[in-house]
Amino acid sequence: MYKRPMAYICENGNQRKIKDHMEVVFSHGWTPVSTNILYKNVVDKEVAEDRKELDIMSKVLMRKSRIMFVCGKDITEEMKDEMVYAKSIGLIVVPLSGIVQIEEYLRGDE
After folding, report:
1. Structural domains of the chain, count
2. Is 34 among the domain residues?
3. If pLDDT is split at 50, 70 and 90, which confidence band does 110 have?
4. Residue 2 contacts by C-beta under 8 Å, 6 or more apart in sequence?
5. pTM of structure
6. Interior/surface letters 59-79, b for 16+ CB within 10 angstroms, e for the rest
7. In the structure, what pLDDT confidence band is assigned to residue 31 with cuts at 50, 70 and 90?
8. Using only C-alpha atoms, what is the Rg of the chain?
9. Any domain includes 109
10. Angstrom distance (rounded) from CA 17 to CA 4
């Protein structure tokens, strides 16, 4: 049985930054999921109906996740909405930098 719990990636970066964040999350024992990566070739964010569908898909993935990692320094309205929803369903919401810092401390890398 697969033992890596799912982690929702809340981000607003370019595709390379998102992939970098996902690699960090994976390296810390989580299965990262990002709607911006999973559905980038399926959903057009410029189309209102697609944005609604993306919102629904994001909520489904959040419900299946154990934690939300917030990536980057700039928080957009979309990210804020995701964080509010995550908290409303009891999802743990933490900055990605926090887990990296804790792991470094536990290894003695500080």
Report:
1. 1
2. yes
3. low
4. 31
5. 0.87
6. bebbeebebbbbbbeeeeebb
7. very high
8. 14
9. no
10. 22
